[in-house]
Specification:
CATH architecture of one domain: 2-Layer Sandwich
CATH superfamily of one domain: Reverse transcriptase/Diguanylate cyclase domain
Order of helices and strands: HHHHEEEHEEEHEEEEHHHEHHEEHEHEE
Structural class: alpha+beta
Strand content: 15-25%
CATH class of one domain: Alpha Beta
Distance between the termini: 132 Å
Radius of gyration: 34 Å
Helix content: 40-55%
Shape: globular
Number of helices: 13
Length: about 525
């Protein structure tokens, strides 16, 4: 009897694998055409968009920085006095061509409350010369368009903001009302600053972002989405921003040009892989899965864990930073960038909350701590005292010894104050030119007064000569103290106002005093406990 010889297992294996291979190739081709190639293109666009987002964030940061600088200048007692004609040396003391060049200012303009020009200073964009004037005429006639735009903004109540103006070249213009340092009272004028988006600004931004940037003014309708233009190995992307212009259609286009080499290389490599996949599918697929897990997926999971842990404790449990491959490079780069970011964040936080001259906390940090201390004292409840300190006749000191010596005096006084604050664990801040303020949580009136007396004594011990002082031949301070129960209303501003009244009484009593505010008696007369030094 004839017995059928079964077909070779090898044949059936290759036949099945061949059919599977054909199906895999067809599926791979379909996936490539419908999913992979579009995904690569979408990823390329997403990468370009991320770079545009980075440029936009840098641009917005520059605007915010300029606006913040305008507010710092405008909310300054010296500026308040200057706009009222009480500080004629203001411009000589604070303005110079070097300052304008370092801060990249084009023009600073001061306007009165009625919108009239009070003072102008800037760098001529044609000659590069620093110029000051009282009106945009003659040598300052180049300022006329800017002054006109600024006065229009004042008339339309478009102040205390940052805007883009479509000039040639375009520029950023920021403004703020001029107020006292404590922002009390009404505005007595306006301060404007402009920063030209010229070639120097573009060069600065290119160094900052690491990307080639172009600017383009367009009268076309602003595009809602980004505009992409692909040409060979490069892609040009542009994003439009609205400008402050009488022509509402005028917009500023910010463009970047990126190299497509990585994308094109990936595309070519992928097509090459497709051609060889048919011959290598059977032999490679299992190995690919194994290698993919071992070389790519597992290290990527470890890298993800590393990026989550480095922000907590900086741990590197799997030694990724010691690898000599791309994963190790990514881990080291991420660790360095994270450390750099933390350092920059710490520096930015310190700059925004501490006085640059004395190193003490500034008004912003003081107000934040006062809010917290006030809330704690009200909710506990517990005692709270605040203190206002002022260097006696500091203007006479500056006039006699000069501003540089005045700055050194402020630094020494601040250092002495800080030593007492550290000893008794309370916060003292520089809240004005020669004005300091302190927060004493849990301090009774007597203990607060005792600390005030120690603060005055430590300044007396410095024996800083003050030849023009009618109080003492050396630098002295006056202190006003108020407690939470002394304020007319339950608010941080009210208790500070009460401390200010006590300081006023100390000055009225001849200065070099520690005055503890005492609530008015039935006769409605204001009294205080004071200690002459």
């Amino acid at each position: 009897m004839h017995q059928r010889i079964p077909r070779s297992l090898r044949f059936r294996f290759f036949a099945a694998l061949g059919g599977l291979l054909l199906c895999a190739i067809a599926a791979l081709a379909s996936i490539s055409a419908w999913l992979i190639f579009p995904a690569l293109q979408a990823e390329e666009r997403a990468t370009v968009k991320r770079e545009l987002d980075r440029v936009e964030r840098s641009f917005e940061l520059d605007q915010q920085q300029l606006h913040s600088q305008v507010r710092d200048w405008a909310h300054w007692d010296d500026t308040y006095r200057f706009i009222q004609g009480e500080y004629p040396r203001y411009a000589d003391v604070n303005f110079s061509q070097e300052m304008f060049e370092d801060m990249r200012y084009q023009l600073m303009a001061f306007f009165t409350a009625s919108g009239d020009v009070h003072f102008l200073a800037g760098i001529n964009p044609v000659t590069g010369d620093y110029q000051t004037c009282r009106a945009p005429i003659d040598d300052c006639s180049w300022m006329t368009p800017w002054v006109t735009n600024m006065q229009t903004a004042i008339a339309e109540n478009r102040t205390d903001q940052s805007s883009i103006y479509p000039d040639r070249p375009p520029a950023i213009m920021a403004s703020s009302p001029i107020l006292r340092t404590d922002k009390s009272g009404t505005a007595v004028g306006w301060l404007f600053k402009t920063r030209s988006l010229d070639d120097d600004w573009l060069a600065f931004m290119e160094v900052y972002t690491g990307l080639p940037i172009t600017l383009n003014l367009s009268k076309e309708t602003i595009s809602i989405s980004d505009v992409f233009s692909f040409s060979g190995n490069t892609v040009f992307a542009e994003r439009y921003f609205p400008t402050s212009s009488s022509l509402s259609s005028v917009s500023l286009g910010v463009g970047i040009e990126l190299n497509r080499t990585s994308y094109l290389t990936s595309l070519t490599t992928f097509r090459y892989v497709l051609l060889w996949t048919a011959g290598l599918m059977i032999m490679v697929i299992a190995l690919v899965l194994l290698l993919l897990e071992k070389i790519v997926l597992k290290p990527l999971r470890l890298l993800t864990q590393f990026t989550q842990q480095v922000g907590i404790d900086g741990a590197d449990a799997h030694g990724l930073t010691k690898r000599n491959d791309e994963i190790g490079l990514l881990a080291r780069t991420f660790q360095e960038q994270f450390a750099c970011q933390q350092q920059l964040n710490a520096e930015l936080l310190k700059l925004s909350t501490h006085d640059a001259l004395t190193g003490l906390p500034n008004r912003r940090l003081y107000d934040q701590r006062l809010e917290t201390a006030f809330s704690d004292a009200v909710s506990t409840p517990s005692e709270l005292a605040v203190m206002m300190l002022d260097i006696d006749h500091f203007k006479l000191y500056n006039d006699h010894y000069g501003h540089q010596q005045g700055d050194e005096c402020l630094q020494q006084v601040a250092g002495a104050f800080n030593s007492i604050a550290t000893k008794f664990n309370f916060l003292i801040a520089r809240t004005g030119g020669e004005e300091f303020s302190a927060i004493l949580p849990g301090a009774s009136p007597d203990s607060a007064k005792g600390i005030g007396e120690q603060l005055t004594r430590v300044i007396d011990q410095l024996q800083l000569p003050h030849a023009t002082s009618p109080v003492k031949p050396y630098v002295t301070v006056s202190v006003g103290i108020a407690t939470l129960k002394d304020s007319k209303s339950p608010s941080p501003s009210a208790i500070m106002s009460t401390a200010d009244q006590a300081l006023y009484l100390a000055k009225a009593a001849g200065r070099h005093q520690v005055v503890l505010f005492t609530p008015p008696k039935a006769s409605n007369t204001l009294s205080a406990q004071n200690t002459p030094l």
